[in-house]
Write a structure and sequence with these properties.
By secondary structure, the chain is of the alpha/beta class. It has helices at about 85-95, 110-120, 145, 170-180, 195-200, 210-215, 220-235, 245-255, 265-270, 275-280, 295-305, 320-325, 340-350, 355-360, 365-370, and strands spanning about 5-15, 25-35, 40-45, 50-55, 60-65, 65-70, 95-100, 130-135, 155-160, 185-190, 240, 260-265, 310, 385-395, 415-425, 430, 435. The strands form 2 sheets. Strands 1, 2, 3, 4, 5, 14, 15, 16 and 17 form a 9-stranded mixed sheet that branches. The structure holds (4S)-2,6-dioxohexahydropyrimidine-4-carboxylic acid. The site of (4S)-2,6-dioxohexahydropyrimidine-4-carboxylic acid has 12 residues, from loops.
Amino acid sequence: MTYDLIIKNAKVLIPKQINLDLRSELKSESLDVAILNGKIAAIGSFASSQATRVIDATHLHLLPGIIDSQVHFREPGLTHKEDLESGTRAALLGGVTCIFEMPNTSPSTTNEDAFRFKLERARNRCHTHYAFFMGGSPENYAQLGQLEQLPHCSGVKVFMGSSTGTLLVEDDSHLEKILNHTKRRVIFHCEDEYRLRERKKIFADSKDPKDHPQWRDEESAFLATKRIVTLAKKTHHPIHILHVTTQQEMEFLANYKAFVSVEVLPQHLTLSAPECYERWGTLAQQNPPIRNQIHQHSLWKAITDNVVDVIGSDHAPHTAEEKSRGYPQTPSGMPGVQTILPIMLDHVNNGRLSLEKLTQMMTENVRDIFKMKNKGRIQVGMDADFTLVDMNKRVQITNQWIASKSKWTVFDGKWVTGWPTQVILKGQLTMSDDTIIIPHSGEGADFDIS
Ligand code: DOR
């Protein structure tokens, strides 16, 4: 038997139990992984002569291909900020192998034509694998049951508070209708639009981005989260809550793990108010906002306590010019798909979480929550998508490295330890040492929608 590729001597992150129906914790083991026809063919110990190509991964960790399940790549309509090519370029350079892209494009992605247009734009242009969310709205709820079954659809996304774009479902009646018309897990941006609207008046004259977390306060997030969990319980529907930011929400969500999955972002785990606004001004403005250290501490505790399932980036690029308009005319959001893995690996090296746990939250749990087929795990038969990381490599993140059209990051100047050195997509080395070797090799990701 001659394999196409053997990755030798890596510390491989594999499941503790092999059962596809169960989410598994991971362990690291020194192993070789053999690849044939884009799939994992064997895991064990192999002689180099058994393969056309060998990658010696001594001193490296071999992770299942890292998945970023929340990115905004702005195509169509806002492509001066990002497009599918530039966004996936950034993703690949950051060690990400698959992205789930959000529907707040222009026009919003809320019907089959708009969705198929995105798939058409993605074909042969993406540098990573991809899937797209369908936007849920008061107008399309009755069609969502069909729309969520389109190929390469990761599910339905709902904004309960308005952010970039026009997608919004503010009232319980339409939220319940969306849950009743869908089968797959629905994902939610939880900020209570009614409270946001009321509080906006209080800050009408503010010119200070430090007021952003006061306007969009803890209670705005908590209210929306409580409302959607109550509706999910009533309708017996699994839900996923994006970018949770508060202690109140984490304490509440700990009681609902049977049907609620939870995401946090690296920026909320790394930066805190008021310092982030003093240093970065409106570049740190994002929805829901970066809050104080008490909340940040609660997010880390929620990771330790297994309340958090997923780390996503919410990559939400805006140009430097748009961000310099002066608060509150500035759009909310920051790029993050290229920095998510380096920032989190640095947290691993600082002892905040284990590499196994981080990897689980960006592969195994994503696979399980969204019912991905063939991805998210190193196991025979799965797609040969991998991220190789050097846990000792020390690098300074700079704006020059950022491939997003936005060309900036709030982590500019930060030294991190731990770096993605190579990416393999379906058995092909696509990124090595900060360089894209094979471009445009991403394909649509598939889901089990039975
Ligand atoms: O700050 C944000 N910006 N939060 C979101 O959820 C949306 C995003 C964007 O698309 O700009």
